[in-house]
Amino acid sequence: MSEKAKLMQGNEACTMAAIAAGLEFYAGYPITPSTEIAEMCSEELPKVGGKFIQMEDEIGSISACIGASLTGAKAMTATSGPGFSLMQESIGYASLCEIPVVIIDVQRMGPSTGMPTSPAQGDLMQARWGTHGDHPIIALAPGNVKECYELTFRAFELSEKYRVPVVVLTDEVIGHMREKVVLPDPANYRMPLRAMPQSPAGYKPYAADPNGGVPLMAPFGTGYRWHCTGLFHDENGAPSSKPAVASTLLRRLNLKIENRVDELADYVAEGLEDCDLAVVSFGSSAMAALSAVRRSCGEGYKVGMLRLKTIWPFPSALIRRLLAPAKKILVPEMNLGQLAIEIERAAGCERPVIRLGKVNGDLFHPDEVFAAIKEAL
Amino acid sequence: MAEFLSYFRQDRLPHIWCPGCGNGTVTGALIRAIDKLGLDKNNIVMVSGIGCSSRAVGYLDFDTLHTTHGRAIAFATGVKLARPRLKVIVITGDGDSAAIGGNHFIHAARRNIDITTIIINNNTYGMTSGQASPMTPHGMLGTTAPYGNVEYNFDLCELAKAAGATYVARATTYHYVLLEDLIGKALMHKGFAVVEVLSQCPTYFGRKNKIGGAVDSLNWIKNQTINIKAAAVLPPEKREGKILIGELHRGEKAEFTQQYLELIARVQRTNPTYARNKGVPGCELNSD
Ligand SMILES: Cc1ncc(C[n+]2csc(CCOP(=O)(O)OP(=O)(O)O)c2C)c(N)n1
Ligand code: SF4
Ligand SMILES: [Mg+2]
After folding, report:
1. Whether the CB of B126 sits within 6 Å of ligand 2
2. What angle do CA A64, A229, A203 make, to 5 degrees?
């Protein structure tokens, strides 16, 4: 086999990548604009010996995925805002219990039922803080169909490696848009693998190995007989309300991801070294933004562009460095400033961060961003 | 006795339960039933939700999964479908299974997925100190029903049966021999099997309703129940208001994960070009 080009939708690219990464279990509940992922999984997974189940709701879906993952299966669900909200409690469970799971959130306009068929980027903060308590999470944001493939694959790598839920934040436009994608040759990538212990003797399910802070995960049903609980627990998995145990666990969990912020960072930067204005965006908004940035440069303005592909953990230090030359920053996004708040925090308050939020259910047009650039300069 | 201790994580004892609580009785019956059947410890996954009853799994030496409130059956569905060879047992409370988790309960029954679900029904939310539950009888007290419960409780066994469960039984912590026997039969059943256990929470339900302590609570349970076999020969007026115990329903229906494995085999026959997923052993059709 070799590389082959295919015309596909973002949702399809997510599905294909998941299967390439070894997806063995999908549980979901239909919701626009993510439903194609469930439909494709129901058709494709049995062909590779995997399992698909349509659950009774999204709470059940994420819960079933976590159960499957505990047996060693790579598991994924896909949803949109309302379903993502329902999943939050169990996402926290996966985060605390360190169970790999991938969640594709094809964002639509909210809150509530909102505008089901319109794109939005309003789940940025929900992806980070949707569940209660301080918890680790990773969120990746593809900017086109090809990246839906690449970042879904990466989501599995990271989730399995760091035992953390990974959210792939796409949106209605990217999910439904069709582009030609060159699928990588399977010979050129390694299927993500979970690190497993060698023997049940002396196994401590939550003993973090000194190098990575990521404990080894024994699949259920293979003789380890360990206890997985959403209560705070010690290295043996025993529930504990000892202050020292709780604090050690919560700090390790969060540092496990925060300490890797540089390694996890992923972005595309253009012309930031010498710019008067930096445009920062992600996902489908970044398509219009990039087009406007290039037009501005063509007309002699000094404008740079930063597109984030990793949203969480937020690479604050890196962003501060990258944006240092810019005198002003413009943040186009399909919400009322969720990314802009983080950029303000990262870039420091001495420069204006202009919020270009769009919440009418329409995509950005490059002209709008161009007009905002001109106005800012 | 000693041989049963080997099913416990002894380093996790003592347990959190109050003296006289029914949870220990049910846990003991489950362990003895497993032992009697000679099931392989390494092939069992026990899943529970949140509540006093759900704490049982933490003391037991299996792969155990103490999940979120109400979701035990949904987590268990993932475990079972991913690895159909595993014996999956759910321990849940009346609040966990009939209130917050009611939806997962009826849908698992509808699918007839091979999960043994043991519901410890103490008529209350024990863990949160005695609020009314969907199993608090009409007129009785809870900390959130201080003037008497104006709602009605479910008949969980009728609910399970109507939803499609293929094994349904009810036992009590008073009728211990029956309890162990019915759990054993439920474990042997291939399909969604439910054992509702009428149990006591002397600390909250018993005290609030002035039933008394553990022994009074057991008698209170006993006096309300009648074995289905005995009931069959009694005149209707003697059965009036009694709760039936015993094996209440057996249904014939293909089991969900088995059907899914057959579906995979069918799809793969017609799509031979697809490479098989390597996966972890255990997802093959011939595995139990
Ligand atoms: C989402 C959520 N809501 C509420 C609670 C609080 N809570 C913990 S246990 C419980 C009730 C448990 O009742 P039951 O299932 O009957 O178990 P019991 O303690 O009686 O054995 C509640 C409401 C919770 N942990 N999670
Ligand atoms: S509160 Fe009730 S259910 Fe909970 S341990 Fe005590 S007696 Fe048992
Ligand atoms: Mg209860």
Report:
1. yes
2. 105
- B50 CA: nearest ligand 1 atom: 9
Q: Tell me the per-residue pLDDT of A175-214, one tens digit each, with 9 for 90 and over.
A: 999 999 988 777 777 888 888 999 999 999 999 876 688 9
Residue A264: both structure tokens together: 């996890």
Q: Are A326 and A304 in contact (CB under 8 A)?
A: yes
Residues of chain B in contact with residue A219, where contact means CB-CB under 8 angstroms, are: 280
Task: Write out the residue range of the structural domain in which residue A338 sits.
Answer: 266-376
Contact across the interface for B74 and A75, Cβ inside 8 Å: no
B255 domain-assigned = yes
Q: Which of B15, B94, B127, B205, when mutated, tests ligand 1's pocket best, judged by the most ligand atoms within 8 Å of its CB? A: B127
- CATH code of the domain containing A308: 3.40.50.920
Residues A152 and A274 in one domain: no
Question: In terms of DSSP H, where are the helices of chain B?
Answer: 2-5, 23-37, 72-82, 94-95, 102-111, 156-163, 176-188, 207-208, 214-224, 228-232, 236-239, 256-270
Interface pTM, i.e. ipTM = 0.97
* CA A95 – ligand 2 centroid, Å: 29
Segment holding A268, helix H or strand E:
strand A267-270
Q: What is the pLDDT along chain B (288 residues), one digit of tens a residue?
A: 678 999 999 999 999 999 999 999 999 999 999 999 999 999 999 999 999 999 999 999 999 999 999 999 999 999 999 999 999 999 999 999 999 999 999 999 999 999 999 999 999 999 999 999 999 999 999 999 999 999 999 999 999 999 999 999 999 999 999 999 999 999 999 999 999 999 999 999 999 999 999 999 999 999 999 999 999 999 999 999 999 999 999 999 999 999 999 999 999 998 776 554 443 333 222 222
- Is B42 a member of any domain? yes
Domain final residue, candidates A124, A154, A188: A188
- Full domain range(s) for residue B134: 20-270
Instruction: Say which of A56, A67, A236 has its CB closest to residue B76.
Output: A67
- CATH number, domain of B218, equals 3.40.50.970
Domain boundary among A188, A212, A231: A188
Q: For residue B287, is it within any domain?
A: no
**Same domain as A164, residue A61:** yes
Write down the residue that tokens 């709760």 correspond to.
Answer: B243
3-state helix, strand, coil in chain B (%, to 5): 45, 20, 40
Structure confidence at residue A130 as a pLDDT band (50, 70, 90): very high
Overall domain count for chain B: 1
Q: Is the CB of B203 under 6 A from ligand 2?
A: yes
